[in-house]
Each structure stands twice: as structure tokens, then as C-alpha cells.
Amino acid sequence: MKAPWTIIMEYCQVCGKQAVGEGYVEGARVPLCPNCVQYGSRFQVYDEYKPRAPAPRPRLQDDVHFIDDAGAAIKSAREAKGWDRAQLGKRLFISETDIRAFEENRRKPTPAQVEKLEHELGITLLAKDAPEEKQKKDSDARPAPAKAAGPRKAEEFTLGDIVTIKKK
Ligand SMILES: [Zn+2]
Fold first, then answer.
1. What is the phi/psi pair of residue 57, to 5°?
2. Residue 90 C-alpha to ligand 1 middle, in angstroms?
3. pTM, 2 dp
4. Rounded to the nearest whole angstrom, what is the distance from the C-alpha of residue 51 to the centroid of ligand 1?
């Protein structure tokens, strides 16, 4: 039986978290954590982690959503840094094709990629669901026009108030 202190402590070459195996990134064999396995090829799990790894990709939390046009946010932040897609991709170990897909809103980055993009570009791609948004998600049956009526109703109410005051 193995003593618990023989556990390998290798650190992920990409993000610095505890690695669970090794894969090839840009031709070099490097330790990778479960989140960063996707950036390596020919990944091999350390024996110690074989029963559990590779871990499934983490999913987005239930109460967050991507901001409107997350793609445009990525694109403009990238351009502000003066990087082309390949340059940004290289910094984040994300392919140029993926960067393009994110910018054109054809694909959503994984949670790990979101973290990298947000950190590298200094942007926020996720927002917490507002309570009413959550309600909307729950009862998705109704069509949109109800939303536009909101502010107008308030105006009408104000006008009505004035009329009432004049009458008095
Ligand atoms: Zn990592």
C-alpha cells in the first residue's frame, strides 16, 4: 500500500494548478491539470490519478450567462491589445480557429477558456443572472412585447398623476 505522501506534486504548465498528467504543448511534454488537458495532445494521466482522471470539463454555474455579444467584447479587447487572433491564441493555448469562432459568436468558450480570456484581455464575459432574468428563463412561454411596455407605463402613470393634480 502506498503512503499518502508519495502523491506526485507536479504543477500545470498552463495555469499552475496541481497537474494530473502530462501532454504535449507546442512540442514539449509538460504537466497539465484537468482544466488544461484540452491544450495538450497525447495526454497521459499519472498512475496516481488514473481512477479519476481526466476529470470532466467543468460546466458553467447555473446562475451565470454570457454577456450579450461576448464575441465583440473579445474582439475589441484583443484589437486594443494590438494582437491578431494567432497571437492571442498562442498566449492562451487556444487555437486561432477557436478564437475566431468565439469572436463570431459561433461557439462559446469553456469555463477554463473564459477564465483565460477574461484574465488576458481584462474583460468580463460572464454575468450573474438577475432575479427577473431567472424568472424569464423559468417561464419562457410568453413572447417579448411585455418588456417594452415597462418604461412607457411609468410615463403614462406620471401624466395621469398630473391630470389628477390639475383636476383638484
Ligand atoms: Zn492548468
1. -60, 135
2. 15
3. 0.46
4. 19
